[in-house]
Amino acid sequence: MVHQINEAHLNASVRVPWLVPLVVDNVRMAHGREPSPGPPIGRQYDLGVPTTTSDLYAIPPDLADLRDTIRQLARERIAPRAADIDRAAAYPHDIRQLLAAHDILALPFEPEYGGTGTGTLMLQMAVEEIAKACASSALILMVQELGTLPIQLFGTEEQKQHWLPRCASGEWSPAFALSEPEAGSDPAALRTTAVLSEAGDEWVINGQKNWITNAGIADFYVVFAKTDRENNRSSAFIVEADREGVDPGQLEHKLGIKGSPTGSPSFTDVRVPPENIIGPVGKGLSVALATLERTRLGAAAQAVGIAQGATDYAAQYARERIAFGRPINELQGVQFKLADMETRTAAARELLYKACAKADRNERDLGKYSSMAKLFASDTAMAVTIEAIQVLGGYGYVNDYPVERMMRDAKITQIYEGTNEIQRVVIARSMK
Ligand SMILES: Cc1cc2nc3c(=O)[nH]c(=O)nc-3n(C[C@H](O)[C@H](O)[C@H](O)COP(=O)(O)OP(=O)(O)OC[C@H]3O[C@@H](n4cnc5c(N)ncnc54)[C@H](O)[C@@H]3O)c2cc1C
Known about the structure:
- It contains 13 helices and 12 strands.
- By secondary structure, it is an alpha+beta fold.
- Among the domains are: 109 residues, Butyryl-CoA Dehydrogenase, subunit A, domain 2 (Beta Barrel), CATH 2.40.110.10; 145 residues, Butyryl-CoA Dehydrogenase, subunit A, domain 3 (Up-down Bundle), CATH 1.20.140.10.
- The strands form 4 sheets. The chain has a 4-stranded mixed sheet. A 4-stranded antiparallel sheet has the order 2-3-9-7, with no helix packed on it. Strands 4-8 form a two-stranded antiparallel sheet.
- A hairpin with a 2-residue loop joins strand 11 and strand 12.
- Helix 5 packs antiparallel against helix 6 and helix 11 packs antiparallel against helix 12.
- The longest helix has 37 residues.
- The radius of gyration is 23 Å and the shape is globular.
- The protein binds flavin-adenine dinucleotide.
- The site of flavin-adenine dinucleotide has 19 residues, from strand 1, strand 4 and helix 13.
């Protein structure tokens, strides 16, 4: 494996101090003082210690350097492949190898399992940079997190040692198999079952999943199955793709993210040992929800990347396209569109990064923030890509130009990792 990211990046166990609203309290604690509730409204803060806001709202330099490396890689090696990947609707094995060779697939993992240990913000900045060039390629990295986070969060040490390092290296890729034909937004309605064999030494899984990213590519599936029908309780299982009874099923023909295979794997009398259960028996739904609370940041990052990619392309086009004898970016109507696109995308990014920092700090309102980031970023990606097509006029509507692909790719970010209606339900629930 070629290690092109410099050692400092890989060794930097950066626990993102970005956007630290608690910086004041941190400073106080560093000086041996207790945090205070703050002054009454209308009075000046008297911190009694030197403080600065210069490091707020800035990406730590180590992470910014790594992001720039990934940005360059995406621009030079991934962007030129994006149109072909879309046209061929085939999984880009070469891009997976590229990401693995540069240790980008190691970003979701801790160092003890072969990862970079660089945290959530770094991971999602990488997703954003790749999605700017090619949303399908970004999914390769996103699924590396989605399919392994149940193990990272709830797995045994043996499971982590066995499954994570080879995902971090890119040798293996997982799939997260929760959704079913009758259970999407309502995962508690899933029908796949897992029952203990008569001898009690194996679980026997039967059922049909739907919309599973990486179907046919995955080396293993994290399958959610009902283990107690009476009390409607499910459990999460690791199912190797080559186990007897696993059928990857047919792939879907999709509107966008065409380079990412989506299928309906079925499981017929698939026998797995108890060691393959992730977390406690009966706690599958908790495993799924805790995973999605974090991985929907990936969908948000993908959306921010798509929006920025479309904005950058439209701005460049508007510099060069002549109408009425001058570049269209001198027309105020076009300028206003571009300004709104840039502003909305920047706002989405801020919300995303704040949610990432909350994930890295394990803050209690992470769920609300990851839902807000996903909701806002995906709606932004949709609106911005539609406007990008408008800026290009007729050229925006044909696949010689990338913005129609970006619009088709943007749509999924409003649907998967929980639809945006479900995000609103989560946010509203947190406000009660
Ligand atoms: C390309 C693609 C890749 C995917 N990858 C994966 C994957 O890897 N793993 C996986 O497990 N799943 C995956 N999914 C599934 C995805 O998460 C679901 O499609 C999504 O959760 C919605 O479920 P559904 O399609 O059954 O829609 P439904 O749940 O049937 O929803 C239909 C409509 O009703 C609305 N609705 C439902 N409930 C409510 C409510 N309470 N309040 C308001 N509105 C509501 C929804 O927002 C939606 O508009 C993928 C889907 C796609 C299309």
